[in-house]
From TrEMBL:
This is Sec-independent protein translocase protein TatB. Residues 67-118 are annotated as: Disordered. It is a single-pass membrane protein. One of its GO terms (biological process) is protein transport by the Tat complex. It is found in: Cell membrane; Membrane. Keywords: Cell membrane, Membrane, Protein transport, Translocation, Transmembrane, Transmembrane helix, Transport. Belongs to the TatB family. Part of the twin-arginine translocation (Tat) system that transports large folded proteins containing a characteristic twin-arginine motif in their signal peptide across membranes. Together with TatC, TatB is part of a receptor directly interacting with Tat signal peptides. TatB may form an oligomeric binding site that transiently accommodates folded Tat precursor proteins before their translocation. It holds the Pfam family TatA_B_E. The gene is tatB. Gene3D superfamilies: 1.20.5.3310. The keyword Cell membrane applies.
């Protein structure tokens, strides 16, 4: 990105040692590296969002163009036949229903009444 060579890094290290000092230089370098990494991730996420928005916009334009375009009768018939084929493959014929004999309404099971004592 910045095209930094070995000589530039060496010069930055010498300036860092002189200005910051050898004791604080590793901590400062770590902090700077952390912020540079966060900046790169932020820029990368913005690029991804922009690319997604561009793709969504292109798809919306495609959808609008297809909706505005009139369909011929052959296209409609082809789509209907495709839908019919899919529908026929999904819906299988129903199995035969098994009829169970109905319960005899005249026969009632015997019940026992329990009276509570007060």
């Amino acid at each position: 990105m910045f095209d930094v060579g070995f000589m530039e890094l060496l010069l930055l290290a010498i300036i860092g040692v002189v200005v910051i000092g050898p004791e604080r230089l590793p901590g400062v370098a770590r902090t700077v590296g952390k912020y540079v990494g966060q900046g790169r991730r932020f820029i990368h996420s913005i690029q991804r969002q922009i690319e997604q928005e561009v793709k969504i916009d292109e798809l919306n334009k495609q959808i609008i163009a297809e909706d505005e375009q009139p369909m011929s009768q052959a296209d409609l018939d082809a789509k209907l036949s495709q839908n019919g084929q899919v529908e026929n493959t999904i819906h299988q014929p129903e199995a035969e229903t098994i009829h169970q004999p109905e319960a005899d309404a005249t026969h009632q099971p015997e019940t026992e009444t329990i009276h509570e004592r007060r």
